[in-house]
Amino acid sequence: MSDVLERVKKIVVDNLDVEGDKVVESASFIDDLGADSLDLVELVMAFEEEFNIEIPDDVQESIRTVGDAVTHIKAHI
Amino acid sequence: MFTLTGRTALVTGASGGIGSAIAKALSEAGAKVVLSGTREGVLNEVAATLPGESAVVTCNLSDPEAVDGLAAKAEEVVGPLDILVANAGITRDKLLMQMKDDDWNDVININLGSYYRLTKSVVRGMMKRRHGRIIGITSVVGVTGNPGQTNYCASKAGMIGFTKSLAQEVASRGITANAIAPGFIESPMTDVLPEAQKSSLLGRIPAGRLGQGGDIAAAAVYLASDEAAYVTGQTLHVNGGMAMI
Questions:
Q1: Range of the domain at B172
Q2: The CATH homologous superfamily of the domain defined by A1-74
Q3: Inter-chain contacts counted by CB atoms under 8 A, chains A and B
Q4: Which GO molecular function, any one, fits this protein according to its record (chain B) (predicted)?
């Protein structure tokens, strides 16, 4: 469980091409990490694959920060 | 130039004149082609004439669930799809004042609705692979209009708007979306036109002949190719000059 954040971090770093130390739980994908809406869709796709879960569309909209993603993923794996 | 070796393609409406020509041309260019349509016998006959690997997956495009499952079925056979050619379409020609809701809904659902559904189901994989070619076969009348075809022209104009919007959404992921707008193409439908109507039709076409399926297929091969990577959101008119837009 504890490595969820690390795995999320790695996906975010790979997908958004950002420095690892910027990927903290409070970081907003769009405002802090430079993601656009299409990047968000791709991130969710990558999370779904990595953790083998389904993230429904309405939940996707509520995932704004790295912490949001980690919380959601932890609740569903 | 314009080789599609190692690429995979799904062509809907592949039993018709234009669809079968597109399937053949993609296959000749080296792509593995999945032919879709409702007439399995005809699809198998077309598949048998293709030089490369091909498969037939029937699908009734008026059934949304069937459309949603079509791409997955095609991918089971040939692997992840690189190219989608949404060619299937129907007409229910009537003057607006005589048009029934079913005439409107059937045409919009099959021509435009299935384009939406099918594209949505293939674009996710294309985004991951950073490569894809969406090609919608629209019509010259989607741009010019045509009396008796409010439903058909609306569906074809809708395909163009859809294609342009999609092109903007996915361009950064190596995916292009373009439309091809055929003019009058020789088909069983035009074969039965009375001679007088045929000659008045030809009078409007500077090239002096009806188009062939192959004329459209060549455009599809180009748009599907790596060389067309910088062409997106466009409508390529292939009409012998009958409308220059």
A1: 8-238
A2: ACP-like (1.10.1200.10)
A3: 11
A4: 3-oxoacyl-[acyl-carrier-protein] reductase (NADPH) activity
Number of domains composing chain B: 1
d(CA B129, CA B175): 9
Cβ-defined contact of B173 to A38 (cutoff 8 Å): yes
Q: What is the pLDDT of residues B117-153, one digit of tens each?
A: 999 999 999 999 999 999 999 999 999 999 999 999 9
Q: Any binding-site annotation on B24? A: no
Using CA atoms, how far apart are residues B137 and B135, in angstroms rounded to an integer? 7
Report yes or no on B112 lying in a domain.
Answer: yes
Annotated ligand binding at B59? The verdict is no
**Nearest CB to B172; choose among A38, A41, A45:** A38
B216 is a domain residue: yes
Catalytic residues of B: 152
Task: Give residues with Cβ within 8 angstroms of B179, minimum separation 6.
Answer: B135, B136, B137, B138, B159, B160, B163, B234, B235, B236
Measure the CA–CA gap between B20 and B29, rounded to whole angstroms: 14
ipTM of the complex: 0.79
Interface test with B, best of A16, A45, A47 (most B CBs within 10 A): A45
What digits encode the pLDDT tens for the residues B37-95? 999 999 999 999 999 999 999 999 999 999 999 999 999 999 999 999 999 999 999 99
Note which residues in 135-194 of chain B have CB less than 8 A from chain A.
169-170, 172-173
